[in-house]
Structures are given as structure tokens and as C-alpha cells.
From TrEMBL:
<feature type="coiled-coil region">
    <location>
        <begin position="245"/>
        <end position="272"/>
    </location>
</feature>
<dbReference type="GO" id="GO:0016192">
    <property type="term" value="P:vesicle-mediated transport"/>
</dbReference>
<comment type="similarity">
    <text>Belongs to the VPS11 family.</text>
</comment>
<feature type="domain" description="RING-type">
    <location>
        <begin position="281"/>
        <end position="320"/>
    </location>
</feature>
<dbReference type="InterPro" id="IPR001841">
    <property type="entry name" value="Znf_RING"/>
</dbReference>
<keyword id="KW-0862">Zinc</keyword>
<feature type="repeat" description="CHCR">
    <location>
        <begin position="37"/>
        <end position="195"/>
    </location>
</feature>
<dbReference type="InterPro" id="IPR000547">
    <property type="entry name" value="Clathrin_H-chain/VPS_repeat"/>
</dbReference>
<keyword id="KW-0472">Membrane</keyword>
<dbReference type="Pfam" id="PF12451">
    <property type="entry name" value="VPS11_C"/>
</dbReference>
<dbReference type="GO" id="GO:0006886">
    <property type="term" value="P:intracellular protein transport"/>
</dbReference>
<dbReference type="InterPro" id="IPR057308">
    <property type="entry name" value="CHCR_PEP5_VPS11"/>
</dbReference>
<dbReference type="Pfam" id="PF23356">
    <property type="entry name" value="TPR_PEP5_VPS11"/>
</dbReference>
<dbReference type="GO" id="GO:0008270">
    <property type="term" value="F:zinc ion binding"/>
</dbReference>
<protein>
    <recommendedName>
        <fullName>RING-type domain-containing protein</fullName>
    </recommendedName>
</protein>
<dbReference type="GO" id="GO:0031902">
    <property type="term" value="C:late endosome membrane"/>
</dbReference>
<keyword id="KW-0479">Metal-binding</keyword>
Length: 373
């Protein structure tokens, strides 16, 4: 059958192609409608289109027509059909002498890549696009695979400054390191990149992506970089540092005042009697009457309310959740302290310090744990 089909294609290509289309699509008993070709093979007697690809060896145009028909009829066709069709589009574009014809073939290839139902192999498609220098396809596949670094490097290799900045703007939220690489890239250029560097620095400053010292070290490699290029960045960083210092000083004063108040309260609790003036239950908000339960935190409760709500007879049910948070933080800090001390002790005595560091790194010793109060 395959040899006969090849002979037909060489002699009557139009009729043979139409016959193969029917063989691969038309035999549907009771006109059962299916869209999955694998499921179709089970429910019908149609032929598999993959088996006829090789007989179109000298009829590339007819093979494109056949594959386009099959992928339109069965969007979930195998990756072999889509991969072959993509390769044919790109080959036609590469050998097309007319610019308009080349654009048409490349548009077909890009439409295939952007088709959400197309089951082409991503890696295979990327290799084909790179082999044929298909820029639009390469960038689309990089973005589809979330290879943002490769997109940036592609534009860097083309010295496309505008797209370097645009790539950082588009994907910088997903990968902030793109801005850092962009700064390093422009710092290596001998041409005048003042505007690009200023824009990159503004984003680095906004996201606090690099320390000022590292920024200056990076720009030190650029012979054309002057103080005017980084003046605004340095001024903004100094202003930000001043604001952070002022904020820290305010917090220090606030915590010092709160600590002093706590010390006075502790002293009063130890030396003088405590008068409870609560007139309402802090749980039900009704007037307080006997029997009642009072705590030194000045929360008061009806005894039935307290017994029905409290988990512990010795703890205020309102203050307990916040107290547990504080205790958890203290325990976590104590455990981290013991673990760090143990790490330094083992590191000083170990013959292979690297293995000790690797072991503790895997156990999370160097992780920064932040607890919200």
C-alpha cells in the first residue's frame, strides 16, 4: 500500500493526496465524532497519518497540505506531525527568495507555535528555530519555557539595547536578577549607554537589588562612566539610608520607652497592691458580678465565661495567643543559638570544614527566619 501510494504521488499528486486524506479521516462508522487521533484509531478503521509521511519525500508542498489537513481535522495529533510541519515551514522560509513569501512561511510557523492545541515537542521546536535563525520563534519558545535569562542574553548578543531594557521590564518581576545582568552588560560597553544605565539603576534602587558598593564596583569597569551617571542613584541611596536610620532610631526610642514602662509595672506588681476596676466581663461584655476572675493584665471575666473559654486556669484567654507567639519566638531563637554554637564548635575541630558547612547548610542553619509579631 505504501509503495503504491508513493507511485500515485509521483504520477497524480493531487488525487493521491486527496485519497490519503480520506484514508486518514473519512472512515467513521455511524459518523462518530472524535477529536483525539489515538481514540479515533480505536473507534474507526482510519489509517495513521504518520505512516504516510515518508512517501511525500519528493512532494513537499503536498506533504504540507496533507499535514495541515490532518492537524486541522485532529488538533490533538501526535508531535511527529506538528514537528514535521514546523520544519517544513521553516525550510520553506529559509529557501524563499521573495521577502513576502518568507514572511508568509514564518507567520505560519509562528502561528503553529502559538497554537495552544499544537502538540509539538518544545525542545525539538527550539532546536529548529535556532537552526533556521527564526528570531520570533526563538523568543516565543524561550518565553513559553520561562527562560527569561536566555531572552535577555539573546538581545545582548544582538546589541539590542531597547529590547534588553524591555525584557527586564517585562520579566523583571519574575526574575529580578535580569536588572543586575543588564547593569553589568551596559557597564562593559564602551559606547555611550548613559540613558540605559540611569534607567537600570532606577529599577535596581526601587527594588533594592544591589548594594551601592556593588553598583559602584560594577560601573568601575566602564571607562566612560562618570559621576553624573550615578549621581542621582547615589543621592537617592543616601536619602534612603538616612530614612532607614531615622526609622531605626524612632523604633529604638519606642522600644526603650515600652521597656521602661514594663519595668515600672513589674516593680509596682512586686511592691504594691493591684486594684482591679473592671466593670465588664471581657468575654461577654455584660456587667461584672461575683464570682469573677481577674488577671494582672487587667482583664476580668465572669467565672462561668472564663471556665467555658479558657484552656488553662492560670492564663488569661485574651492574652494567651499573643503570649504563645512570643514564647515560640524565644524558643526558636534559643534553638537557633544552640545550633549555631554547635556548628562553630564542630567547624573549629573538623579536618574537612567544607563537609561540615555543607551538612549544616542542608539543615537550614544559614536560613534567615523572620517571625512576625
Amino acid at each position: 500500500m505504501k509503495a503504491y501510494g508513493k507511485c500515485l504521488l509521483n504520477n497524480v499528486p493531487i488525487e493521491a493526496t486527496n485519497l490519503l486524506k480520506k484514508l486518514c479521516t473519512s472512515y467513521k462508522p455511524n459518523r462518530v465524532e472524535v477529536t483525539d487521533p489515538m481514540e479515533t484509531d480505536k473507534k474507526t478503521h482510519r489509517s495513521r497519518p504518520e505512516e504516510f509521511i515518508h512517501i511525500f519525500v519528493h512532494q513537499k508542498a503536498k506533504l504540507i497540505e496533507f499535514l495541515e489537513h490532518m492537524t486541522q481535522m485532529f488538533p490533538k495529533s501526535s508531535s511527529l506531525l506538528y514537528n514535521t510541519l514546523l520544519e517544513l515551514y521553516l525550510n520553506n522560509a529559509a529557501h524563499e527568495t521573495d521577502v513576502k513569501g518568507q514572511v508568509i512561511h514564518e507567520k505560519k510557523a509562528l502561528d503553529l507555535l502559538m497554537n495552544v492545541e499544537a502538540r509539538y515537542d518544545l525542545d525539538h521546536a527550539m532546536v529548529l528555530a535556532q537552526m533556521h535563525h527564526f528570531k520570533a520563534g526563538i523568543l516565543f519558545l524561550y518565553e513559553k519555557a520561562k527562560l527569561y535569562q536566555q531572552i535577555l542574553h539573546y538581545h545582548m548578543e544582538q546589541n539590542d539595547y531597547t529590547n534588553v531594557i524591555d525584557t527586564c521590564k517585562k520579566h523583571g518581576a519574575q526574575d529580578p536578577s535580569l536588572w543586575v545582568q543588564a547593569l553589568s552588560y551596559f557597564a562593559r560597553k564602551e559606547s555611550n549607554c548613559k540613558d540605559q544605565i540611569i534607567e537600570v539603576l532606577s529599577h535596581i534602587n526601587r527594588g533594592n537589588l544591589m548594594s551601592p558598593l556593588l553598583v559602584l564596583q560594577t560601573l568601575a569597569h566602564k571607562s566612560t562612566a562618570t559621576l553624573a551617571v550615578v549621581k542621582d542613584y547615589i543621592v537617592r541611596r543616601l536619602q534612603l539610608e538616612d530614612e532607614l536610620i531615622a526609622k531605626d532610631e524612632r523604633l529604638i526610642r519606642q522600644y526603650s520607652e515600652e521597656t521602661e514602662k514594663m519595668r515600672q509595672q513589674i516593680s509596682e506588681l512586686k511592691t504594691s497592691a493591684k486594684v482591679f476596676n473592671g466593670s465588664k466581663c471581657n468575654l461577654c461584655s455584660r456587667p461584672l458580678d461575683l464570682p469573677a476572675v481577674h488577671f494582672l493584665c487587667l482583664h476580668s471575666f465572669h467565672q462561668p465565661c472564663f471556665e467555658g473559654y479558657a484552656e488553662n486556669d492560670n492564663e488569661c484567654p485574651i492574652c494567651t495567643p499573643e503570649n504563645k507567639k512570643v514564647l515560640d519566638i524565644i524558643r526558636s531563637q534559643e534553638q537557633a543559638k544552640d545550633l549555631h554554637e554547635q556548628f562553630h564548635h564542630q567547624l573549629e575541630r573538623a579536618t574537612d570544614g567544607f563537609s561540615v558547612v555543607a551538612d549544616y547548610f542542608g539543615r537550614g542553619v544559614f536560613n534567615k527566619v523572620v517571625h512576625g509579631l
